[in-house]
């Protein structure tokens, strides 16, 4: 799974991307820089979720969900944001939420 690492890429996705919300996670998605890119994903957890242990757990849960759902989508860069309900949700619920967000974004399978 390719991840977004550069701050400039993260900001590009965040400013130009379309936003979709679900109680279990939020998603910002935009087209990749060039045609045919394999797609990348980033995981974020805001400080309001709690201390570093809770934020890291939330990001680990999101990473496992993305792997289980064959993310990222080719040709798109995606940022997944954790919510307060993310770390306690069942894996199948998170996968269903990610698929629902992808379908709403028009990049579903």
TrEMBL record:
Q: What is its EC number?
A: 3.1.26.5
Top-tier EC class: hydrolase
Keywords per UniProt: Endonuclease, Hydrolase, Nuclease, RNA-binding, tRNA processing
Q: Which GO terms describe its cellular component?
A: ribonuclease P complex
InterPro entries reported for this sequence: Ribosomal_Su5_D2-typ_SF, Ribsml_uS5_D2-typ_fold_subgr, RNase_P, RNase_P_CS
Highest taxon above the source species: Bacteria
Q: Which GO terms describe its molecular function?
A: 3'-tRNA processing endoribonuclease activity; ribonuclease P activity; tRNA binding
Which SUPFAM superfamilies does this entry report, sorted A to Z?
Answer: Ribosomal protein S5 domain 2-like
Query: Is RNA-binding one of the keywords UniProt gives this record?
Result: yes
State its role: RNaseP catalyzes the removal of the 5'-leader sequence from pre-tRNA to produce the mature 5'-terminus. It can also cleave other RNA substrates such as 4.5S RNA. The protein component plays an auxiliary but essential role in vivo by binding to the 5'-leader sequence and broadening the substrate specificity of the ribozyme.
Name assigned to this protein: Ribonuclease P protein component
Q: Which organism is it from?
A: Enorma shizhengliae
Q: Which gene encodes it?
A: rnpA
């Amino acid at each position: 799974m390719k991840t977004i690492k550069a701050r400039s890429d993260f900001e590009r996705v965040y400013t130009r991307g379309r936003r979709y919300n679900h109680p279990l996670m939020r998603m910002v998605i935009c087209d990749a820089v060039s045609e045919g890119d394999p797609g990348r994903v980033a995981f974020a957890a805001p400080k309001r979720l709690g201390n570093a242990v809770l934020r890291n757990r939330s990001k680990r849960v999101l990473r496992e969900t993305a792997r289980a759902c064959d993310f990222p989508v080719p040709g798109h860069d995606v940022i997944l944001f954790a919510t307060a309900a993310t770390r306690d949700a069942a894996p199948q619920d998170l996968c269903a939420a990610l698929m629902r967000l992808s379908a709403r974004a028009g990049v579903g399978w």
